[in-house]
């Protein structure tokens, strides 16, 4: 026989669920790090409007970490300067992140020597950027015990770094570069290029003389017309939702 539904238990469960979700939302808001509420962190610079989402990943060496304005750092993002906490790294910043940068959830930026990320770069989730690589010169010594090699990393402004990409020591990525998901980047990447693969190679590039080569297969998105306000865009979104609801009701009415 089917079990009788326990209405009281179901009601209590819904109430507890709402309380848990509300409590976790409060924890996320309260635990996030901003310039106005830095908590225990003392970054070298933390720009206006920048927020590090809670829960944070590993963060140390923050006096040598400079973050620009209006950055979004997702949950569980690791930001480190230096090989380990507690080191004195000198007067200059080690990790510099420009204005308007977005670092996706679970990404790592490991700056044992200088790492620079230009303004308006967008990282997908789980991107890994490091200025340090293990060395294996001595065949008789465990690799983890050999002194690592360090080379500065520079990512130019306006780049898009896809999910799971790896940026290796010594990488020099130009302006407005697309790094495909899962790509492993080393060496120099020119401006206005698309790179993919492991190791990454240029698969498409734009130049003033030739445009995009190979040519783009899809038309460019139609830009928002000048003069359109935020309020108008939000009103259009509301209209889309209403139209979707009306269509769903019509489909239900049409069912036999």
Write the element-wise H/E pattern from the N-terminal end onward.
Answer: HEEEEEEEEEEEEEEEEEEEEEEEEH
Q: How much is the radius of gyration in Å? A: 24 Å
Which CATH C-level class of the largest domain is it?
Answer: Mainly Beta
Unreliable runs = none
Gross geometry: globular
The secondary structure category is: alpha/beta
Instruction: Tally the beta strands.
Output: 24
Helical segment count: 2
Give the percentage of residues in beta strands. 25-35%
Mean pLDDT: 89
Structure commentary:
This protein folds into two domains: 23-217, UDP N-Acetylglucosamine Acyltransferase, domain 1 (3 Solenoid); 223-256. The chain is built from two helices and 24 strands. It has helices at residues 7-31, 230-254; strands spanning 45-46, 51-52, 59-60, 65-67, 72-73, 78-81, 95-97, 102-103, 108-111, 115-117, 122-123, 128-130, 132-133, 149-150, 153-155, 160-161, 166-167, 172-173, 178-179, 184-185, 188-189, 193-196, 201-207, 211-213. The strands form five sheets. Strands 1-4-7-10-15-18-21 form a seven-stranded parallel β-sheet, with no helix packed on it.
């Amino acid at each position: 026989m089917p079990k009788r539904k326990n209405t009281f238990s179901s009601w209590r469960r819904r109430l507890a669920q709402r309380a848990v979700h509300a409590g976790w939302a409060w924890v996320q808001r309260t635990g996030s790090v901003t310039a106005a509420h830095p908590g225990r962190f003392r970054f070298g610079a933390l720009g206006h409007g920048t927020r590090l989402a809670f829960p944070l990943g590993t963060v140390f060496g923050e006096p040598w970490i400079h973050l620009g304005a209006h950055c979004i750092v997702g949950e569980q993002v690791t930001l480190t300067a230096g090989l380990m906490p507690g080191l004195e790294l000198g007067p200059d910043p080690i990790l510099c992140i420009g204005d308007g940068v977005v670092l996706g959830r679970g990404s790592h930026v490991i700056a044992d020597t200088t790492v620079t990320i230009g303004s308006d770069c967008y990282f997908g989730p789980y991107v890994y950027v490091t200025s340090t690589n293990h060395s294996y010169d001595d065949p008789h010594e465990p690799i983890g015990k050999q002194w690592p090699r360090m080379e500065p990393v520079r990512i130019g402004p306006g780049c898009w770094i896809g999910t799971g990409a790896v940026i290796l020591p010594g990488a020099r990525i130009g302006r407005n570069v697309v790094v495909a998901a899962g790509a492993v980047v080393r060496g120099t990447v020119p401006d206005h290029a698309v790179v993919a693969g492991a190791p990454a190679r240029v698969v498409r590039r734009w130049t003033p003389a030739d445009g995009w080569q190979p040519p783009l297969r899809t038309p460019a998105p139609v830009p928002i017309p000048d003069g359109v306000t935020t309020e108008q865009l939000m009103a259009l979104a509301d209209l889309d939702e209403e139209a979707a609801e009306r269509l769903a009701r019509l489909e239900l009415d049409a069912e036999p």
